[in-house]
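Minutes, project check-in
Item: structure for the 160-residue chain
Input as provided by the requester:
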Amino acid sequence: MIKKWVITAGLVALGLFAITSAARSDAHIKLEKYSTARQALMQLQSFNLLELAAMVKGEADYDAKLAQDLANNLLAVAKLQQDVMWPQGSDSDALPGKTRALKLAWETYPEIANRRNDMIKAAEALAASAGGGVDALKGTIGDVGRACTLCHDKFRARAE
């Protein structure tokens, strides 16, 4: 016959497991929202940059107003206060399949912040030149692409 204390202890353990599992699940869901926000930000940057790149490559007609709007959008997104989207524990180890952000971004901080500043500077130069013709755009768009690549190459896991 099972002792009453064994059943009680088992129920308590089961209850604690359920509570911690729910808390862990809730924390996991909360961290996913940060990853989702970062991905949305990257999509906005990508959209604006790729539209400008199409003009530079001759895949789309150069339009000074549109180029300026796209460059201004890119700069505005780059200048957003992004720190709130990067809490520790929202990396690819903690959220496999939900983010490609490597833990290294947090481990080597403020290196990633410096890379973000490089992106802002490149986006400022792009915004200053975008409405001045396709040749002016060609002269500055590469620095934005390089800023993206330098950060992604170091701090983002490769796609599987």
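Outcome recorded: The CA atoms of residues 90 and 109 lie 14 Å apart.
No further action items on this chain.
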